[in-house]
């Protein structure tokens, strides 16, 4: 009988019973075969888990790639499909520039379905100098549209009176000033008194004429330069900005008022109306007094601020409104103010 089993003998019966108690003080005895089998099972399970993870990651990568390709692919709906002409690069460039005037430039393809709207954008682009007349004519010709409505309500350069003061600038704001001498068949003859040294034949120009009839703006091209005289091309897209000399525009422009020679903090205000000669502004806390010399910094939007000096010449509306007369300004500053008043924003 094994020694690790305990027995108990009941008295007077002569019978011995096994109590079931096991002596484990010596530990478990495991054979090498059992150890190898255990390790094989554990290794098989581990390898299976690793392979499953690899396959799952590959499947997830394939699904992500399919979703990405589905998002990039155009969604075609029968009700939104429009047959749009494929434009040559030059015409497409003109169309893209006209789209700048839209709140949502992506709607330019819809505008192509509306000739009246496209004419309106083209006229605006010609007035702002964003596109040239020849480019627009080529675009309309390709789209088989009549370009004549573009010129039905436009002012011509022939309506500008000779003798008008002119301000001429290039895209990089190289500015010249002078006088509008005469209207010729081949173009407008200007006499430049200041600036214009960098002007070259073929340079696109923005011209502002300032006369008793009002302020006119148009875009042109330099045809010929001889001494102080410039011959520029005619334009059929002239913007008439004002009717009489020094007419004030009702325009609200944020202005910071400084006081040269004093250490007081600048005042923030807004214009009520303005011209190239001066402006009426709100008098913040009635701080502006008659005869005060002020430095006006005008907010020009995305362009650098415009700094002008002036004098308070009058107070009105119980001193809540101050009228400022601007001091003499250089040609570049004057032209920037012209453009700001014309834009009206």
From TrEMBL:
<dbReference type="GO" id="GO:0035438">
    <property type="term" value="F:cyclic-di-GMP binding"/>
</dbReference>
<dbReference type="Pfam" id="PF07238">
    <property type="entry name" value="PilZ"/>
</dbReference>
<keyword id="KW-1133">Transmembrane helix</keyword>
<protein>
    <submittedName>
        <fullName>PilZ domain-containing protein</fullName>
    </submittedName>
</protein>
<dbReference type="InterPro" id="IPR009875">
    <property type="entry name" value="PilZ_domain"/>
</dbReference>
<feature type="domain" description="PilZ">
    <location>
        <begin position="242"/>
        <end position="340"/>
    </location>
</feature>
<keyword id="KW-0812">Transmembrane</keyword>
<keyword id="KW-0472">Membrane</keyword>
<feature type="transmembrane region" description="Helical">
    <location>
        <begin position="35"/>
        <end position="56"/>
    </location>
</feature>
